[in-house]
Write a structure and sequence with these properties.
By secondary structure, the chain is α/β, with parallel strands linked by helices. The protein contains 18 helices and 15 strands. The strands form four sheets. A seven-stranded mixed sheet has the order 1-11-10-7-6-2-3, sandwiched between helices. Strand 6, helix 8 and strand 7 form a beta-alpha-beta unit. Helix 6 runs parallel beside helix 7 and helix 10 packs across helix 17. The structure holds pyridoxal-5'-phosphate. Pyridoxal-5'-phosphate binds next to helix 6 and helix 7.
Length: 475
Amino acid sequence: MKTPEPNFSRREFLRRNSLTGLGAVLTPSLLANAAEKSAFTVLDDPRPAAPAFSVADAPALMGGRPVRTKEWPIWPQWIPETDEKRLLEVMRSGVWSRAAVVSEFEQQWAATLGSKRCLAVVNGTNALITSLAQFDIRGGDEVLIPPYTFIATVSAVLATGAMPVFVDIDPNTFQIDPAKIEAKITPRTKAIIPVHILGLPADMTRILPIARKHKLVVIEDACQAHLAEINHRKVGTLGDAGCFSFQNSKNLAIGEAGAVVSDNSEFMDRCFSYQNFGNAYGSAGSVSVSLGTPYQGTKLRLTEYQAAIGLAQLKRLDAQTTTRNENAAYLKSKIKDIPGIVPYRLYDDVTRAAFHLFAFRYKKDAFKGLPREVFIKALSAEGVPCQKGYATLNNMPYLNDAFQSKNFRKIYPKEMLDFKSYVERNRCPENERICNEEAVWLTQNLLLGSRQDMDEIAGAIEKVRANAEKLLTLK
Ligand SMILES: *Cc1c(COP(=O)(O)O)cnc(C)c1O
């Protein structure tokens, strides 16, 4: 049997194999199995070695031939043969609101992580808000967070009325720097949100003892870190609660959805109650149900069809995570010695990462001073799509907008809400350099390709570097 290229469309794969007679002998389930495999397994690439390019060729950004023209693996993946049966059952049942399929997804996600409980909610942002609120993080409290994160981490803190306090990052790992946490702790500090940003685990081994010492609640933002591990334990299960996102771009994609996980059953009962209007649930409010709704709540319930999509995606997550880890390690080994390219570092006790993003630092001095913007354009033109990633979040107007709200003005002393001095207090120079000058990202779907794909990424970077002087003449 001819080995398909990893990102042949499934239809193309089926067509080719039925043309060679295979379709006639494979049972539908075998066929579906083979089709599913073809969509994500790294297979030996049957193409002849990549058409030779020389790093001295003209850069694609200036009209030269790109290193690569082939498509990258698509994201998200949908495989009708394996994915649609369950979804159609849900649609035909008419039970679309939260019921048995959501519970099944929650049980499977908890089991996959090794957590006692899981609650699915509408998105990762609200998973964070739910967790903060049910640990009673409220107005007047301070919450420690890294500035190198998606804006939702900060929005969640502001939504509870608490004050975000930024702790600078370690530029080698892109994660919150444990050495800088204690200096930011005040009597108001009640919680810390370590974010496993890029899908690389934060240094929980050092963060947890600091949190214990200062009695801080630890809520892990694992929205990019599905199946990442520290000492073989999944991130999201190491703190008091873990929050996940299943938004379209995430490593487990449902479109929109999120989850809270924890071993604390009283807390989880409160979270469940909260996402269902504050109605009684388990240990939460069971005493006097006759009095009606016991808690202040909201509505964040997931639908059955979202859960059916999640169950389909979950079947592939482990194998995809292995592929991303293998390709990331290989790509890192290929580019780490290129002058001016400094790939991410993992902490020593990380046993698996999620690689939602593959990040490296770009040092323009080793590229003849070529600005990062031009490097990114040039690499993208070579057929390797990349981006600069996050902007600095600790100085943007949305913070001041929150500070000027009626609630904030009633809760905090005036000095705390002075935006200029807030920005000054929360400066994070390492993060500024990463955001404004150095970070370059490749998205996770690129890591679902073959080894040859990784070789092409490395080759394209080398080619841009060899052409740095020419690229500098671009206006
Ligand atoms: C995606 C993401 C969130 C928010 O998740 P949504 O499902 O988009 O609401 C929070 N934190 C981080 C680090 C994320 O990447």
